[in-house]
């Protein structure tokens, strides 16, 4: 199917968050207890959750459990926004390179025509970005692939970040196509299995699945609303600057007002 997965004005879940402004800080890295490090531009302490903004305009962020952050350190001088493990010694004493998880997500999302923010929201809900995560039911890795599902997807090592993300993204795409791009049903099937979704004609009456779907949609909506607000602010600043130029350097107060926030009715993909 050649249809690309995009969200339009119509969707199934309303936008559920408000945006606040934050001051900019020098780039730092949050080193997690599981060995991953996340390079970010600024952060917000939300109690049990810490939000790490991985770009300057705040349109992309990752929520991680505060207790999982081991320490904060200064980021390197490179300009790449990297999410990965620090160098470590392997069994044969060769140094392994950091894993660019952001790059893996971008690559897999491009290959299967999904929004990287959606894939990141799924990873956050599934494993909290823990490459070695194992659920009580046996799901493994970043996107928590069950052994049988991984086998069907051709993923031989579920703890390999690249293979896991590629397999999980492909599986999510297949579920979206299966349910005519109904995101809610696709996410419910990812969590509880397609059989349960078809048995109940939608989200199964399981608290875990309902909470799982709501968490991903809420997280994804926040990313999209933050991105939209950033675009509106940038557009408003450009318009204001243009008006000042036309007026011979005098600012136009009416043109400097930011557009009123708009909300979509739902989160259903077109």
The description of the largest β-sheet is: 4 strands, antiparallel
Name of the CATH first level of the domain at 99-223:
Mainly Alpha
SS field, number of helical segments: 7
Q: How much is the average pLDDT?
A: 75
**CATH T-level fold name of the domain at 99-223:** Lysozyme
Bin the helical content: 25-40%
Q: How many strand units?
A: 9
Intertermini distance: 14 Å
Give me the secondary-structure category. alpha+beta
Shape: globular
Order of helices and strands: EEEEEEEEEHHHHHHH
Which parts are unreliable, with pLDDT below 50 for 5 consecutive residues or more?
A: 6-25, 77-97, 251-270
Q: Please name the CATH architecture of the domain at 99-223.
A: Orthogonal Bundle
Rg from C-alpha positions?
Answer: 20 Å
Which percent band covers the strand fraction? 5-15%
Spatial strand order of the main sheet: 6-1-2-7
Report on the structure:
This protein is an alpha+beta fold and 270 residues long. Among the domains are: 26-87, no CATH class; 99-223, Lysozyme (Orthogonal Bundle). The chain is 39% helix and 13% strand. The chain contains seven helices and nine strands; from the N terminus they run βββββββββααααααα. A four-stranded antiparallel β-sheet has the order 6-1-2-7. A hairpin with a 7-residue loop joins strand 4 (49-53) and strand 5. The two termini are 14 Å apart.
């Amino acid at each position: 199917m050649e249809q690309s997965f995009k969200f339009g004005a119509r969707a199934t879940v309303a936008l559920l968050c408000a945006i606040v402004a934050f001051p900019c800080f020098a780039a730092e890295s949050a080193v997690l207890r599981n060995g991953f490090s996340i390079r970010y531009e600024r952060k917000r302490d939300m109690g049990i959750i810490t939000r790490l903004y991985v770009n300057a305009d705040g349109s992309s962020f990752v929520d991680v459990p505060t207790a999982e952050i081991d320490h904060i350190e200064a980021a390197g001088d490179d300009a790449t926004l990297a999410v990965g493990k620090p160098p470590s010694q392997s069994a044969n004493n060769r140094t392994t390179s950091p894993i660019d998880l952001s790059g893996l997500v971008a690559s897999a999302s491009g290959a299967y025509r999904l929004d990287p923010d959606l894939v990141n929201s799924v990873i956050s809900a599934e494993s909290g970005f823990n490459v070695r995560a194992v659920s009580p039911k046996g799901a493994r890795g970043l996107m928590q692939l069950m052994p049988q599902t991984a086998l069907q997807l051709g993923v031989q090592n579920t703890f390999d970040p690249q293979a896991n993300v590629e397999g999980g993204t492909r599986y999510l795409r297949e579920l979206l196509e299966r349910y005519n791009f109904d995101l809610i049903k696709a996410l419910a099937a990812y969590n509880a299995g397609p059989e349960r979704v078809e048995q109940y004609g939608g989200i199964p009456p399981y608290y875990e699945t309902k909470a799982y779907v709501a968490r991903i949609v809420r997280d994804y909506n926040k990313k999209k609303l933050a991105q939209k607000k950033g675009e509106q602010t940038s557009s408003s600043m450009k318009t204001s600057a243009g008006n000042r130029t036309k007026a011979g350097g005098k600012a136009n107060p009416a043109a400097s007002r930011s557009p009123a926030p708009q909300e979509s009715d739902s989160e259903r993909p077109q």
